[in-house]
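Can't attach files on this board, so I'm pasting raw text. These are the components:
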Amino acid sequence: MPSSLQESSPPASATHRTDVVVIGAGLAGLTAARRLVAAGHSVVVLEARDRVGGRTLNHDLGDGQVVEAGGQFVGPTQNHVLALADELGIGTFPAYAEGASVYVHRGRATRYSGDIPPDLLALPDIGVTTARIARMSRQIPLHAPWEARHARRWDATTLDSWIRGTTLGRGGLDLLNSFLGSAYGATAADASLLFSLHYIAGMGAEGVPGTLDRGIGTKDGAQERRFTGGSQRLSSTMAEQLDGRVVLDSPVRAIEQDDRTVTVRTDSSAWTCRRAVVAVPPALAARIRFSPLLPPEQDALFARLAFGQLMKCEAVYDEPFWRAAGLSGQGVFRAGSTVCSMFDNSPPGGRPGVLMGFLGGRQWRAWAHRPAHERRGAVLRAFAQVVGPEALRPRNYFEQDWTAEEWTRGGPTAIAAPGVLTELGAWRDRPFGRIHWAGAEHADYWNGYMDGAVRSGKDTADTVIEQEG
Amino acid sequence: MPSSLQESSPPASATHRTDVVVIGAGLAGLTAARRLVAAGHSVVVLEARDRVGGRTLNHDLGDGQVVEAGGQFVGPTQNHVLALADELGIGTFPAYAEGASVYVHRGRATRYSGDIPPDLLALPDIGVTTARIARMSRQIPLHAPWEARHARRWDATTLDSWIRGTTLGRGGLDLLNSFLGSAYGATAADASLLFSLHYIAGMGAEGVPGTLDRGIGTKDGAQERRFTGGSQRLSSTMAEQLDGRVVLDSPVRAIEQDDRTVTVRTDSSAWTCRRAVVAVPPALAARIRFSPLLPPEQDALFARLAFGQLMKCEAVYDEPFWRAAGLSGQGVFRAGSTVCSMFDNSPPGGRPGVLMGFLGGRQWRAWAHRPAHERRGAVLRAFAQVVGPEALRPRNYFEQDWTAEEWTRGGPTAIAAPGVLTELGAWRDRPFGRIHWAGAEHADYWNGYMDGAVRSGKDTADTVIEQEG
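---
Top answer:
Structure tokens for the assembled complex are below.
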């Protein structure tokens, strides 16, 4: 039989009161808080991390320069995050995309321009697939994809299965997987066709149908621009303006509610409020203890909206030497390489020069646990395939592994496996009593993107404001 | 700014010591504990519920009779749970399967014998599909399905997609989905083909290849027998013999470890031990706070090993009136009905008579939230289609909704979506430092079944015993 020891009692906890508690100080939570405060509500934002910004994170390069270690790109039709930046006085600048990009396949690097790599064998398949995806995604009711005429059929299969049935060769699928490595942190085999069509249908805005081209594109696409001072500045500026209402280092463990009140508990404090906005990724929301329990469908949905795996690897050089050689610094690697895709990630002035590569899904799994120096070597060799051997000697190199972060556990966004959307999707945004949901995964347009997070934060705040009168 | 109130401090917590803490008093955890105690280790089993047995649960019918509201069937090759029952002095009896079964399709009931419903249009497809599944499942290395030659291809598609590509009509798929409604709590659209082949390959024992027939079968199959006194008796007898070592009402919230010690925390106590065995479903294990964090792949895998949705509905009659009419009480309903399948679930003597129906997956979602009297009416009407209108007037009716249970959250078992096994499967049973895993989802043979739970509990205990010398 075990022996007993006495342990000191934990510190007494304090109970606070406010109108609304927002859980999570990422773009969605802070946008919601900002809007609620503007409508006259008292608000507290509880953040698990010791910083704001969620999946956006600035990395300090010294000399007042920063580079993004998390979400960073913004482009046309992402009007909500652009409008927020405008309000906050944060400008944008074009991501560097002059000159030729490079496509790497079987160790051979080929220069090209535009967004589609010059894989001659894959081009016909890419054309057919893109056209079919465009036609099918137009049939998706954005607010209820499970109501599409062929929803059940399209949700019973993976994107991979569908593409194999549409194409002749493997090139189209491999190239799509290069994009999905950074967009899903996974492959076409992990995602439902219906989910993918919905994701693409949302790459637009009201009156502007979403297209895959806009999603993968640099010019006129989702990778067109970046935020001056780094994307995390959106969140840190909002947090500053929220003036003491953001409480860091406060992971929320439990949320209780009755007909009139919600109680939000951290390890050391409790907050009672009229409504709560949970603005953390769904899979993390499902790990909060709710009392009463979440409806089983909502719990099952949130748990299934799992993140892919993603790491960003960045190398810093005195200058972006590739530009003089007529290269954009952009590279696309067909399956089997260390990185899925890479970009020139230099600050606006081009001093220093920065190359950034994504290790997503399979690449993450292949490399995340190898010794750091081996991974660094492999990433730099991949960079060198695109911009030449100078890439092997950066003055600095750093990584951000979102998958190892307790409060993200993957990235960049949640992807739905087959069955999830048709069976449980209707529960995604449904308030649970006085508890509301926000976040990039709760958006129809630009789901999983910064714009989706801002949209969702605004929409959820508006719902709370309407309910509270 | 919010106002502050003072809250009373929580009770001081006690710290206990033992060699091994087992988390979860289901079949796996109790089997592991029993084996560890026999090897001379001090053991404590922490159970979140106020009872032992996990997904097995006896329902008291009065007069000393019980019927199972959870896992209940046992059959040939399930040698580990049968051997455990033998050790505990718990007998088995044949599930009632005399007379004709009934197949219900488009409101029409057809009698048949054997395990395959007499759907003439579906039979050729069923024959071809069953033969191909048998051939493919023999290619699955049971301990490492991701190493099958076609693993990646088979894991990139759903079972649904593959069957549609193999069959001519819809009948075979519909019938398989009737089985999967109770086996997966889901449909063929939710599961990876590779996962399903592995699941089927495990429906056997060492030297006896698994077959789908054994899985769906009554005679000579997984539904052949039941435990005298109900399956929960296995757990309650083990708990009695563990004599005070099982602590109920103790949900584990956090597990910390260093090189030498593991600390397991409930809301009111802490246990330090040399090793811990986590014997709860993977998706619930992922909700425990681990420090250090679980490896990201293991966390991602556990979160993705989500349960289907399942409810059991049982009607009690003075006697099993259908037997006299030459009916087994077994019914299979093709897609679209209220229940997926039903069985005669009477106690050994046939007094009273009990009919049991599964609401799994789509049926659960269609009915779980309807008013109880509507659901009862619909279930009884389904029963009446199989055994006649007498079914409409039971003397008692009860339900067990596993999906609404905080400590199960679905049922009967975890199913893997495409991509999960090939990408993350190798992490399923890997100990995390001094933390080990057990449960029906950690078994290769009879994964998700009581036999898998017992096997896994034994295997994990043996690993711990070996490590501790």
